[in-house]
Specification:
The chain is an alpha/beta fold. Helices cover 39% and strands 21% of the residues. It has twelve helices and 13 strands. It has helices at 57-74, 111-119, 128-139, 199-202, 204-217, 221-225, 235-243, 247-271, 281-285, 288-300, 303-308, 319-329; strands spanning 22-28, 32-39, 44-51, 82-87, 90-92, 97-101, 106-109, 124-127, 148-153, 157-163, 166-167, 275-279, 310-313. The strands form three sheets. Strands 3-2-1-4-8 form a five-stranded mixed beta sheet, sandwiched between helices. It has a five-stranded mixed beta sheet with strand order 11-10-9-12-13, sandwiched between helices. The protein is globular, with a radius of gyration of 20 Å. It starts with 21 loop residues before the first strand and ends with a helix. Bound molecules: zinc ion (ZN). Residues 180, 190, 192, 194, 197, 199 line the site of zinc ion. Zinc ion (ZN) is lined by residues 180, 190, 192, 194, 197, 199.
Length: 333
């Protein structure tokens, strides 16, 4: 099983440590890989970024080794104590295996072993949303509380749960797959192959797909906003069309936002978190969703849980994952 969280690894906790602990952290996304040298106080000493031009495990491992070398070079090649990689995937962390990574088209890839060959060190793997949640918990929007529910709505939809100061993994390490809870019995087809998933209505790719369908089937301000170029449609344009009181945009938004809001409210009822941390490009570019989420919690979550939860937005941005994976990789076992 995955390692359990110990005491909160805040920068304050480590202030008195006599020696510096440096971690090489990598955030492997679907398009880019970022690497950073991170110290025990969550400070990023250096950051490097590279595009993933190829998708085979060996090729990606080569890019990760390259971006790691660049981050090390920018930090004047310090001695590294720990290595960690956050990846948008389901994992068997203890075995260092990526079981499913939809963005990369991977199944059962021994990523830790591929990287150990290149970096000559053991490499800790963690799911990217859990890494980001841990980063926010330690040094960002989750500071000061031990019960956190994070929801990220970007091209996909995901979540991570910190309960009593521990990351919730579940018995087979797939807890928190919030994008794939079902919100309709016979609904839209999701990228996971199932129908009616929340992500199939709210995820950025699926919002854009619904906007395209609207432009192709009815008069809508979205057509003018994208200048006829359907491939340029984005959540920003959905927000703009809402401001123009466009009925088609409203229909898409009403359904997506109400499904998202009631789904989050239900999780608030179940988990009773102190803080809900919202992140991801869709919520950043279409802030009307955040308003509906707040209203949904008030209307639909259990009254005591609704009163207790504070709704905030992520504060570390893209660095949350790097900081989180660094802290997790360097945590005492
Ligand atoms: Zn799904």
């Amino acid at each position: 099983m995955s390692r359990r969280a110990g005491a909160r690894p805040t920068p304050l906790d480590s202030r008195d440590r006599p020696t510096r602990v440096l971690t090489l952290a990598i955030d492997l996304g679907g398009t880019f890989a970022r690497a950073a040298v991170v110290d025990e106080k969550s400070a990023l000493i250096s950051v490097a970024k590279m595009v993933l031009l190829a998708r085979t495990p060996e090729q990606v491992a080569d890019v990760l080794a390259e971006v790691a070398a660049e981050a090390l070079r920018l930090a004047d090649n310090p001695k590294i104590d720990h290595y960690g990689v956050a990846v948008a995937a389901q994992l068997e962390s203890d075995q260092g295996i990526v079981t499913i990574a939809p963005n990369l088209g991977w199944k059962d890839i021994p990523l830790s072993a591929l990287l150990k060959k290149r970096l000559s060190a053991p490499v800790y793997l963690v799911n990217d949303l859990r890494a980001a949640a841990w980063g926010e918990y330690a040094a960002g929007a989750g500071a000061g509380v031990d019960d956190i529910f994070t929801v990220v709505v970007g091209s996909g939809v995901g979540s991570a749960i910190i309960a009593g100061g521990e990351l919730l993994t579940g018995v087979t390490n797939v807890a928190g797959e919030f994008g794939h809870i079902k919100v309709a019995t016979e609904g839209r087809l999701c990228g996971c192959g199932m129908r009616g998933c929340l992500e199939a209505y709210v995820g950025g790719h699926h919002l854009i797909a619904q906007m395209k369908e609207a432009v192709q089937s009815e008069p809508t301000a979205l057509a003018a906003l994208c200048g006829g170029d359907l491939d340029s449609l984005s959540p920003v344009m959905l927000e703009e069309a809402l401001r123009l009181n466009d009925p088609a945009a409203h229909a898409i938004f009403e359904r997506a936002s109400s499904l998202l809001a009631i789904s989050i409210a239900n999780q608030i009822t179940v988990l009773n978190p102190a803080r809900l941390i919202l992140g991801g490009g869709v919520l950043r570019h279409a802030p009307s969703f955040v308003r509906v989420i707040r209203e949904g919690i008030e209307r639909h979550a259990g009254a005591v849980a609704a009163r207790a939860v504070e709704v905030v937005t992520s504060s570390l941005g893209d660095d949350a994952g790097l900081i989180g994976v660094a802290l997790l990789a360097s945590r005492p076992t």
